[in-house]
């Protein structure tokens, strides 16, 4: 089923026409209403009337997280505060968080795009969505909440943690869709196993994932453990929250709701747009945000985009899942490495569990990489020879992927910290300490 | 300002006419759609057509928390699950929680009643509501969230905890309304003081309280610390959530949104209705709930109701703040004591802080009561003689209130546990251990 066929199946030309009109509109509003954009555009000598084609977007300066921080708290709002009905912030581990302000129209758009995505995943008014994302300043919980309400599904806003309660409600309330971060999903599966609850005996039908980068291999592990398909949900608080792009049952990319969020892929160094299919940094423009127009926002997320008519029937532009972030790229012995590459290699080898840590040290002058990964219980306790074989295979697979030698340590099952909520800490960088 | 003058200022007769119509409607729906009611009413030989006047409500059996638990999880729903869009549960510390299911109409009613209450407290589209209630299965966060959205205020859904972050956002976002439980509010005030932040320097204008019983004396302490008026918000997850009744600026009772929630006061022993002004157990009937009709629900909360035209102009029936619960009444040496009575006595004496615990023991065959309360810092460290005087005064004030002798211990400031979220634990009953 398609939630809004008129939009989700537009021809590329029709979509571009809509996008251009909306881009002109948002640039005009931003220039007139937001001092930040007025100054930046004036300095760059680019004005709303210069946007004659979609390609003209390249004339506009980027907006970065640093710009958002400098405008803290409400400097990017385009409407009086009384029109803002909800505020979220990014997690902002250091310094001030970035702020996202929503008018009623913005909340409606947010619910609408998530409604499209949930429908795409086969979820409807008969479904019961157990939402383990946190509610609060974080946008995770609310995106699915508003989208679920819009499609008339039953939302259980249980939020993070309370894993035993989660399992009880899955059983008692016939949960048909689970929403979680990959790392929390793994933890949940593990606790279910300990408690003798087989996910396959439940009413579960589909999983929606978000808030964390993941590899295909991680998805396979999760689908195997829960016995249902798992689909990706992408978004950023700054742009709107989860729901910028969601994955269809084809499972080879996410549809970007490009009538609201215009994507570009740029070379993070030259800042030039890259051709379709080429990996680079995703830049997003919120075409319809009323409260806080965000134009050419550098997401730091690495992916590529392609226009095609998808097997699911939608024409909405597709992006690959995020393969890393420009700022989570590790420089190790001068080589660029993404944690996702290591995850991919790790999970290609049988006999290990998807719980791992990447520990970087610099004992002397050279970087060293240690990968701690949990062996599967049946192997760890029974078979030393096999353990050595697995360790060597892992080291080889990682070397093949990133071109560097690593030390692999197979650790006892359940000895790597689990997360009860949010994102797992995969990289521990002790170099320079 | 009055959000819905047509309803909030109806004459008593007009309101009764509306209530009767709605009562007949909900009883009919419940009888026809919910097996629980069908059975109970059939057993009691009372049928929808027997409800000819509002007084006929007394013919209907009560619904208790035990009944709700027995119908766990969805036994009280009057619509197919696909029409339910949101589910909340009570905290349910023991056994299964009680479940509350909402259709879109129910969520709209919930937002509507909270909108009325916020408007009554002087809050509107220009206000910034910092909502420290938890979001999740608990209804606390969502009630204010939906009401705040409805009036067009800016809601900051920060949720519980993160006290330093709360203070930072109050400063940075110009929070004009704080929502908290009394115990968290006290903790917040204390941390602000430690950090040298004077609430009076902020943009704060009003406080909304909920989820915990409180005394006038506790309110005075909080108003004094924050320098703004604090109003009571009452509600129960089973009935709808916070928003069943809210307090107006007159501060002498809460207006019950009686067009949606029909109140009765009964004698908890005889189960007979009590006359206006008499304290008893509040029984509520949700007149308009679509998803889950709740008829004659015994709240266990003790209060009284009175019809009058309020100083604020509203005619909606008023209830006193909850003075206790039928199940938090303590039997001490055969005497019925409510913790709120002890709080009231404690806070009537100068020189102590609103942080206390009531500890019950039975060293031999007789109950003993120890009251631990924090002395004010300026007294605790400087003036032993004064301390003794205060202790004696406290013991006397409590004796005057409850008629029992208690041992009062004045403890060092900040030595009684603070709550970072939810409700304070005031009573420790070690009798029989």
Radius of gyration of chain A: 22 Å
| Helix-strand category of chain A | alpha/beta
Portion of residues in beta strands of chain A equals 15-25%
**CATH level 3 topology of the largest domain in chain A:** Rossmann fold
Find the CATH superfamily of the largest domain in chain A: ANL, N-terminal domain
Secondary-structure arrangement, i.e. CATH architecture of the largest domain in chain A: 3-Layer(aba) Sandwich
CATH level-1 class of the largest domain in chain A: Alpha Beta
Total individual domains of chain A: 2
Give me the oligomer status: homodimer
Helix content percent band of chain A: 25-40%
Descriptive notes:
The structure is a homodimer of 433-residue chains. By secondary structure, chain A is α/β, with parallel strands linked by helices. Chain A is globular and about 70 Å long. Chain A has helices at 5-8, 12-33, 35-44, 65-70, 104-120, 140-151, 163-172, 182-194, 216-226, 339-347, 377-380, 384-402; strands at 86-89, 99-102, 128-131, 154-156, 177-180, 206-209, 230-236, 241-247, 254-256, 261-266, 280-286, 297-303, 305-306, 318-319, 324-325, 330-332, 335-337, 352-361, 368-375, 407-411, 427-429. The first copy, chain A, folds into 2 domains: 1-327, ANL, N-terminal domain (Rossmann fold, 3-Layer(aba) Sandwich); 330-429, ANL, C-terminal domain (GMP Synthetase, Chain A, domain 3, 2-Layer Sandwich), CATH 3.30.300.30. In chain A, strand 6 (206-209), helix 9 and strand 7 form a beta-alpha-beta unit. The longest helix of chain A is centred in the first third of the chain and has 22 residues, at 12-33. Chain A has a 9-stranded mixed sheet, with helices on both faces. Chain A has a 4-stranded antiparallel sheet with strand order 10-11-12-15. Helix content of chain A is 32%, strand content 23%. In chain A, helix 2 crosses helix 3 and helix 10 packs across helix 12. Chain A is built from 12 helices and 21 strands. The interface between A and B is medium-sized, with 35 and 35 residues.
């Amino acid at each position: 089923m398609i939630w809004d066929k008129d939009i989700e199946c537009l021809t590329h030309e029709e979509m571009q026409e809509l996008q251009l009109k909306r881009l002109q509109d948002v640039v005009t509003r931003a220039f007139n209403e937001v001092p930040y954009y007025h100054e930046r555009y004036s300095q760059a000598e680019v004005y709303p009337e210069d946007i004659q084609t979609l390609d003209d977007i390249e004339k506009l300066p980027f907006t970065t997280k640093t710009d958002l921080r400098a405008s803290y708290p409400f400097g990017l709002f385009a409407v009086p505060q009384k029109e803002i009905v909800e505020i979220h912030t990014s997690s902002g581990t250091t310094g001030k968080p970035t702020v996202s302000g929503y008018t009623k129209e913005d909340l409606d758009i947010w619910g609408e795009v998530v409604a499209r995505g949930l429908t795409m995943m086969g979820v409807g008014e008969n479904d019961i969505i157990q939402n383990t994302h946190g509610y609060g300043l974080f946008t995770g919980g609310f995106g699915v909440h508003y989208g679920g309400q819009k499609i008339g599904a039953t939302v259980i806003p249980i939020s993070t943690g309370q894993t035993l309660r989660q399992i009880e409600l899955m059983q008692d309330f016939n949960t048909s869709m689970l929403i979680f971060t990959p790392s929390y999903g793994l933890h949940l599966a593990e606790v279910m196993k300990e408690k003798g609850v087989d996910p396959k005996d439940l009413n579960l039908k589909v999983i929606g994932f978000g808030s964390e980068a993941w590899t295909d291999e991680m998805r396979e592990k999760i689908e195997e453990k829960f016995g249902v398909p798992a689909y990706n949900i992408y978004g950023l608080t700054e742009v709107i929250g989860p729901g910028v792009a969601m994955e269809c049952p084809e499972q080879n990319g996410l549809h970007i709701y490009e009538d609201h969020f215009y994507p570009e892929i740029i070379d993070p160094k030259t800042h030039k747009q890259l051709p379709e299919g080429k990996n680079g940094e995703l830049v997003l423009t919120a075409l319809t945000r009323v409260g806080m127009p965000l134009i050419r926002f550098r997401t730091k997320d690495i992916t590529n985009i392609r226009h095609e008519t998808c097997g699911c029937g939608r024409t909405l532009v597709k992006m690959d899942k995020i393969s890393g972030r420009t700022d989570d790229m590790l420089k190790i012995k001068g080589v660029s490495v993404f944690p996702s590459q290591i995850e991919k290699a790790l999970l290609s080898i049988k006999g290990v569990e998807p719980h791992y840590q990447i520990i970087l040290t610099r004992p002397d002058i050279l970087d060293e990489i240690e990968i701690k990964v949990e062996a599967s219980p049946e192997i760890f306790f029974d078979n030393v020879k096999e353990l050595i074989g697995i360790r060597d295979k892992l080291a080889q697979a990682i070397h093949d992927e990133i071109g560097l030698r690593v030390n692999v340590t197979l650790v006892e099952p359940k000895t790597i910290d689990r997360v009860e909520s949010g994102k797992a800490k995969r990289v521990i960088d002790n170099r320079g300490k």
